[in-house]
Description:
The protein is of the alpha+beta class. The chain has helices at 3-15, 19-28, 37-45, 57-74, 95-106, 111-115, 126-138, 149-155, 159-174, 237-244, 249-254, 271-278, 335-346, 351-358, 398-402, 408-412; strands spanning 183-188, 193-198, 201-211, 220-229, 233-234, 257-261, 266-267, 282-286, 297-300, 309-310, 324-326, 330-332, 364-377, 381-383, 389-391.
Amino acid sequence: MGVGKRLHFRQNLITRGSFIAAILTLWLLPGPGQVHAAEATASTESGASNPFTPYGRQHMLLREALARYLALADSEIWVPLDAGQPLAPGMRDPRVKQLRSLLMQYGDYPLNDHTGDSHAADEYDERLRAAVRRFQRRHGLKADALVDKRTRARLNVPPAKVARILAANLKRWRELPKELGPRYILINIPDFSLRLIDGGQEEFRMRVVVGKPEHKTPQLATRMTRLEVNPTWRVPREIALRELLPKGGASLSASGYQLVNQRGRTLPFSRGNIAAIRKGKVMLQQRGGPGNALGRVKFVIPNREAIFLHDTNSKHLFKHSLRAFSHGCIRLEKPLEFARLILAQQNGWSDARIDRILLSNRTRGVALEKPIPVYIAYWTAWVDREGLLQFRPDIYGLDKEETADDDPGRKENRQPE
């Protein structure tokens, strides 16, 4: 059944006032993971089964999700969850009916479970608990089944707004290269994650810290060309003047900082030398080694914004669910493990040779024999490997900017260029 016919069928059912029929009709629109066999076969035959390929499975499933949310926005069955005390498993509350209805519409509460449910409609039972936890996981929330203010806020995002979010993410997918390469690094800023993809399979994954909203990490397509062990940190001028130099020369010297001129000569922390930083004639830098802000290893990805990946001494930040704390560069949760993997595979180094490099106190750079493509993306919505539609907060406000003048319905029918 084509999308147009399905929508027409849905409208006829809603006219009859049948709530369940309306939900069933919305589900006739293929949701994430509900790809028709013919489409899935065509995708595989064309080599587009890689979920991270711009015009492969990911793009197709996002378009299907957009069609479903447009249909839901067009209907009259969506009603937000009323305010009130948090809903927890075992409770009985009139709002439980609303909660179950929303989760049915979003695909988290299976329709067959609803029709066979022997519990009271206002009872927060085990089936509903499983649906709430599924919804929370899809939105990057703590999967505790407690419907508090945060979960309720995500539940109450209007379908029309979700459609705009999906349209914005489809637009960003189209801006990626059509071929990402057989092996590449993918960093998703709103998900605070890094993945190493090899042959369409996730080989390595870790958490990352990205830039604050006032120091946004940019979207990039570049390559990782080298790594540096015990790197020297050449402090950006604004950070040096605003954050570090006010601490005083003695404190900075104790932490391994020094002033150097354009010839690399070390200078004292005098008023004149500090003033020369503003003119670009003197730089503040921190020696490599223990206590360095970049940690033990830095990964170079050439770009105009001077963004790179690096270790960090602030390991506690990885415990936060929202990890936007840097000045733009990307801090890695498992940098040494990542470095071992890269050196072993790219340069063919033995474990002993890698240990000699990584465990030494010397500052040393290592060029990669086979530079790896790196894509720093901004996806607040995507479909994961299990076919689940994932959402994350729009930490930089890009969804709103990119959809201000756009029509999601028009984007739905746009073909890949």
